[in-house]
Q: What sequence folds into this?
């Protein structure tokens, strides 16, 4: 079967609700990231996106609550104590977080993510989630991106008004992090057994990662029922171990996004790309990220949005690729359709 016919068959299966097999993921990842075959893949992925997302683009917002010198020293995170980039603890107050969340929701963000270090405190995080739910009305999903958790903690998050957990088995887990893969997988299983939805990207991707590694992480997301997946490239912050290595080319980032879209099919309605990429959005990603506060891809505490990429730019990027996107709130406070 030639490659175009093969992609056609995968597209048909995706539109019928079938998940692709690991071998399919590998075969698509093996395509050169330039050329007609990968462009054909991108066009097929965009058609699947139209069906899976109802051609709707969505903006994921993330608020980094705290930064501190972290003894975990994950190789891709600027907070690592060993790198010396973050020298003091900094934390947003509850009032600051609520104000940011209110602004993001009014601007049209579909998700508000509370991202913490391992040391923020679980009870504090749940209390803050309850405060946000009480203070920030609107149609948005409240998300947490924090450390490992068990089933009791997952249940407490649900009770606090949280609907989604971002958690992933990261590339190089146990090698470039101090966490055992089994710990991360236990949390994924706890989320999967709960009413909470799972968001799990293939991340943090560099050009050195093999197709087998990428496929393993993506299949882990599928096996644990992720409703949002996609790809996040590693950002090589100066002073971190990855600083001297190459970053992922945009063409490869877009290819991986297209593979996750085609192989996730209707089971994974939202596919995210981070950092935002016009090519990846045109090839099936319907979610881009706006983040501020403590950002592990920056050597500082961002008082503005990371890299200047705000909600308006995110909305414009998605619309240019043909997606409908929620507008900002009207002056009266109600959001348009």
A:
């Amino acid at each position: 079967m030639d490659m175009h016919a093969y992609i056609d068959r995968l597209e048909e299966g995706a539109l019928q609700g079938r998940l692709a097999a690991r071998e399919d993921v590998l075969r698509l990842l093996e395509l050169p990231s330039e050329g007609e075959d990968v462009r054909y893949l991108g066009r097929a992925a965009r058609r699947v996106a139209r069906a899976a997302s109802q051609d709707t683009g969505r903006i994921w917002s993330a608020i980094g609550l705290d930064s501190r010198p972290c003894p975990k020293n994950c190789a891709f995170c600027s907070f690592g104590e060993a790198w010396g980039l973050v020298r003091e603890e900094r934390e947003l107050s509850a009032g600051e977080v609520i104000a940011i969340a209110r602004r993001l929701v009014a601007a049209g963000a579909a998700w508000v993510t509370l991202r913490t270090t391992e040391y923020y405190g679980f009870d504090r995080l749940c209390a803050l989630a309850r405060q946000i739910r009480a203070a920030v009305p609107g149609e948005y999903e409240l998300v947490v991106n924090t450390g490992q958790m068990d089933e009791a903690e997952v249940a407490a998050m649900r009770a606090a008004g949280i609907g989604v957990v971002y958690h992933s088995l990261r590339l190089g887990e146990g090698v470039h992090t101090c966490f055992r893969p089994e710990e991360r997988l236990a949390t994924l299983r706890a989320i999967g057994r709960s009413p909470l939805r799972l968001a799990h990207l293939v991340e943090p991707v560099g050009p050195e990662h093999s197709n087998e590694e990428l496929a393993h992480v993506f299949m882990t997301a599928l096996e644990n029922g992720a409703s949002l997946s996609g790809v996040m490239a590693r950002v090589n912050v100066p002073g971190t171990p990855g600083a001297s290595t190459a970053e992922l080319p945009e063409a490869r980032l877009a290819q991986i996004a297209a593979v996750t879209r085609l192989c996730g099919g209707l089971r994974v309605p939202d596919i995210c790309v981070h950092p935002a990429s016009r090519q990846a959005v045109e090839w099936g990603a319907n979610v881009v990220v706006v983040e501020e506060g403590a950002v592990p891809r920056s050597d500082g505490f961002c008082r503005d949005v990371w890299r200047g990429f705000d909600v308006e730019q995110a909305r414009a990027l998605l619309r240019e690729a043909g997606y409908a996107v929620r507008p900002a709130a009207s002056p009266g406070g109600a959001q348009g359709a």
User: Anything to note?
Assistant: Residues 70 and 81 are 5 Å apart (CA to CA).
